[in-house]
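WARN no homologs supplied; continuing
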Amino acid sequence: MEQSGSTEINLKEAEPSSQISLPDAIQDWTKHHLKQWILQEPELDDCCAQVLYDEDINGRSFLLLNKSDFQHMGIKYGPAMLLLHKRDELAQLKKQEQTTSQGISIRRPCKPYPFHCFHDAYRYTVKRILDVPETGASNLIDPCHEFKAFIHTTPKDQMQKFTEETIRFAAACMNSRTNGTIHFGVGDNPHFEHGQILGVRVTDKEAYVKELLNAVAGHFEYKHVEVANKCIKPPRFVEVLNPDMSSSDTYVIEVDIVPAYVVCQENVYHVYNVERKKMKRKVKGKEECKLCFVRHGATSRDLMAETSKCKPMEEYNKFVESEVKQLSQMRKEAEEKHLIAVKSSVQGSRLSEMITGGTRSLDKSHFEWYVLVTNKSHAMQLESLEFLLEMNLIAVLDFDPESAENGLYKYYEDQRKTNAHFPKEYKITEAVEDIAGRLKLTKNTSWVFCNGCLTNEIGPVKPSDLELWSTEKGASVRDVTSFLCRKDVLPPKRFLVVFLLLSSVTDKMDPMLKIFNNFWEELGGTEQILCICQNDTVFTNWENLISAQCGVNITQRSIYELCLSEINGTILSLWSTNRSSSCFLPCLGGGKVLLRKKDEDSMDTLSILCVNQCEGGGGMDRQSVEERFYKGGKVSWWNFYFSEEPGSVPFIKRDKFGFIKDTIIPELMTLQQACVSFNLCHLPGCGGTTLAMHILWSLRDKFRCAMLRDRNVDFAVAAAQVVRLLTYGVAEQSPCLPVLLLVDDLEEIDALCDLLQHIEKEIVKKDLGSRNPLVVVMNCMRTEVPEQPCQDSVFIGNDLSLNEQDQFKRKLEEIEKTHNNAETFYGFMIMKKNFLPEYIQGVARNTLKGFNLSHKQGQLIAVLALLHVYGQGASLSVSLCEEFLGLQSKPYCASLKFEDEFGKFATLVTRCSVEAKVAYEAVRTIHPRMAEYCLQELTTTYKVTKGEIANLLLTEDSFYESVMGKERLMQDIHGMLVKRQYYSREESIFSPMILAIMKETPGSEEIVLSNAAKRFPKQPIIAQLLARYQYLKKKDFRGAREWAKKAKDLARDNSYVADTCAQVIKHELKYTLANAKHDKPPLAPEKLKEYLKLARAATESFRETQEIARKESRLHAKPGARRDNRSYNTAGCLGEIQVAVIVLEILEKVPVFNHDQLRRNIMAEYLSGNIKIQDIAKKDSKQGHECYFPVLQEYSELLSNLKDNMKRLFDFLDCYFINLAPRYVQKLRREQTIQEELVRCFSCYINLFCMANPAELFKSQSQEVVFKILKGRQFLEMNRADTYCGLLDCLSNKPSGQEMEKIVEVYTFILKNSPDKVKDRVNFIYANVLLHCIKPSSQRIFPYHLLMNQLIHVLQIPIVESDSLALHFIATALLWPEMYSSSYSHRSWEAGELGSYVSRMRNSFWSQMGSVWHSKKPVVHFYLGKKQGYDRLILREQMEKCVSPDLASSLWVNGRIWKQDRVRQLLQQVSGEVCNNAIMAEPIPEVKIPVKPEYKSQLNGRCNGTRVTFFVGFSMNGPLAYDIQCLPTAGRHGIMETY
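OK structure emitted
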């Protein structure tokens, strides 16, 4: 056998050449030591050694040299730099070794790689010490070992060294008949500790395999080559890790020798010391090259070599003649002894038992969650870890810093969604549930890198060595274990911590031991810990270390006799057959696309319904599924699936099922909006959610169906996931199958609007074009009162039709055949009995017999009933109930259900899942009506009042300890206390629960509120509630002020809290005035001062409320602001007006102003700021009045500006309510209440300020024209016609034709005699337009062409900013070019200016309304019609007259109004082209007007330049485009006829 540059291999050299031992410290080296070090470093030039030697450089001087010194001595730049680098590297290594030796010894033993194995996941760690010595033969089966550092060999000599040492060692082992392993990359004395792991770099593993085969063929006798190949195993490359568990890119090369008896028999094996060429063995002197090696102690000795101890060949002959036979027989006997007996094991069964908590089924596992703790994995292990993908892993504590690069994390994350974290993120710095929510703890698996992570995508965070891990990372990882073991994070005893040891743990400093100890302490034992070891050896090391450190025997909590593939198969077999089945989503054309589990995980805000949902579900227990549902639990997809099985009675179809499926949804799909919705309103407990899910189930092959998991989720995130579901598996630019999204139990309809807007934005962002809706949202919403039916809304009540009753009857017959306990299926029977009160009351009475509030079960059932009735189906977490009932200390029984712990009340409760920041299992009463009758029964029979139960809920500390669901419970209780209903004024004073307690036990509500304040000391809304109670109910204004102040201190930037502070003062003022009604007139000065002092304080407080409200609105309007559906808070404006009205009432009682009409006129002038109080005092000579003037003077700032402030607020609110509309009708109802109060206040305002007669004030004034103008302006103000907003309000309030004519007449007179004000001119234009709308036949209407001239004139003169919005709005509407207009050429230039008018209008709108229009939409006052002149402006009212009155309002919601034939005949269709997400309307050539689409998604997929047609609506924020259609063949310009 040959090697380039080599002539002969020296197999006789068994020992390395003797070398001088180097001192540990470099400074102690002599020049001889230094020379030796350089010569043994393969990367350094040998000539450097001689140069430094000649210069007498020793270790101390060597450390002082720099680059220039070396060059001065004649060493070239390259070798000098290498020498410096090696010196510094060695010095650093020495320093680290010194530091380590002063702390913790680096001598850490480790086991050798398992003998005769090639697929074990074992790795070495650099600097560890193999705990086996270099030995000779022992029992022939246990391998002997030989170590070779292999690091001082030059690359060209490495292969020669490897084959030379391996052949010698192998021949020795084969002759000695002993197993053996030779290790390359393991140090030995004197340069290293004996057995020290070093590692060597390997660039080509195949080269080692090939060269070893060549060496065997070249050195063994031909007849023994085949045997040698069987005994000498291929090289094994064992990876070497750094101390911090990262890869070092080095290996220990090992070769195992297995001289089996059946192979070797009694042969003697010789090797040759010749050239390495297979075909050239027959050379002269062959016998002299023949060698025979045996193991002799730690070395291999040649028996044929001459020695001084015996005659030549004597030992060899003795070995050949007798010893080899003896060794062969010993080998045969040793092999027979070590035959592995088949060992019986029950660990498979034990694993099934422990990992499920005794249920032996993971579908019904006692454990809800699993925490995995693992260390470094090996690539060959990953294929046997599939079971991890199917488990509910809430967290993985991973100690492999390279896991994300090539380890377990990469394997898992490729198939499942994970959230990567570092331990510091688990430190409790905020509310626990906020941390859990931020970490998405129960949404996806949280992967915690406990020893750093070396990938840039996640880290990089540098890993720590074992010695330093505890100080650098131990504390933060302890935070992780403490966090996960909290009762309010994971349910006690309902999660299992699994230690999966993929690598051996052999060091007492290993962090896996620290974490075990942490969990052992946190959990109080090993009951919730399971250890899985890949083999017995790993377990033995683990067990010994655990026993030594914790004193715990973990044998009974460990699995170690099963290999990973067996563990994998055992755990996967514990799932039902449907668990691992593939899920598919429908596609257009009837196709399907596979939904990967990872992608499903990533859409964690949605519960996705697949086409093949539940198929193959043989493992699901139909009995238990149906029992839970019929007893009152929430319906699941399994219920629908089982009802479709052969022989089953079909699932009950409510009467509205067909209407929704066959009418509403198909009609919605004809619309051209990207996102449409409809409402499914239902009374609580009437099956609304069940019906909605039934709709989804029946349409799962025609839509991509999903449910929103949590109503409190970030809608921006949910919208992005909805659109991802829409486009999943669909090629780019290909049509998508629409998404049908069920949204259940939103508290506010505005929240639905918010969600729709986010979905719309996401569709626009993705530029998804479609002629039909892409997302249909089914809003299933509970209501307390029946809703009026409309086209896009369905109401489900508590009265079954005859058809529905018949279906329930047939279903009951089936249930009675298949279930033995059907009589306890109260959820089903309540509906079967058509919600019969007598039935529900009878069940409640019989079940609650013997109720005792002092018993724990009684307390829980009472609290659950109260929560269900007043908390909208609120629940208590199972872990909280277990804690309350003291079940945590009881041993777990797999056959016992939690509900049974309620004893005789068990039939009144059911389990449910709650999606929150941390998802958890909860319990609630079975039905809202049952809960109501339980409360009624408790009150009437057992004298337990609602107030008493509420106090129990508020004062029992165990409900608020660190348990799961604590935050949701506190939110529910908070809502029960403060959330009001707005069906009538009386009900809106307090929440329904407080009102019910007031009615049942008057006065006890105060105790409840007091307890609420103690329970929620940091909640400003509770303090606000107490303030409201004090001033509304008790009239204790001092107490109210204290509570209001506390609320304000807790929430200084909350306008609603600020409003309460102002309301306290206002109500105190009103109460004081009401009590003074019986005082004899006139009003005393001191009383006047008291009242005005309160009025001023209230006014200032309301103004502060206004300022805070503006800040709130500006904050909400910012991009990325936290979702808040509340519109601008107008309470401060209304409150200031109300106080001003009270001031008017006060002043009317002051003698200075109350004797006759003249004095009322004086008061009006004074409050208008036209007369100073000093002037009134001078002219008032009436005795007794002088004592009032100082008081009036003191409050002159409040009084003299009263009218202006009232007028300013009236005008602002007019502008706000008339130009901005709520998105939904529910908010409109609330605003109507506010506007009714404004009407009352305005009536008081006009009675004083618009009825005064100025002529009586100044007798000398004889200017009749001025007087008439003044009276005319009073008339306009009185009719709210002095502002453009007040005039536009005529469109909804509809004054009589005569009143509008009078308004136009007054403006005509004013403009004739005082034409200077632009505002009057603009209002005159509005008045004429509105007169035509109200009374088209009026002779007072100004001719249209003259009005246009008037408008054009106004547009050409300078205007102030306050007039810009009104002017440019009406200019845009009236100057929109008309086709066939006779004045077309005359006004073409004005039309050309329309683009600038629109721009200025939008700027003015944002300037005036930008800070207050959050959560509202601009009102469209007019639509563009086909006719000319005044008739071209179409009102909403005119369009609604074209359709059925019952459907008019609902047709607007989803844009169906535009499809009505008669509506389309009214409106003018305009053409234009798409330009940068907007439309440039082109009504006439060379004129382009920017128009915004009503929904931006209508332009998706339409590139710039696409021709479209649309209808135009005019709002204060510019013209809007409706019903946008592509225009494939139309001409470039002109207005298109619809028909």
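The two ends are 98 Å apart (CA to CA).
OK
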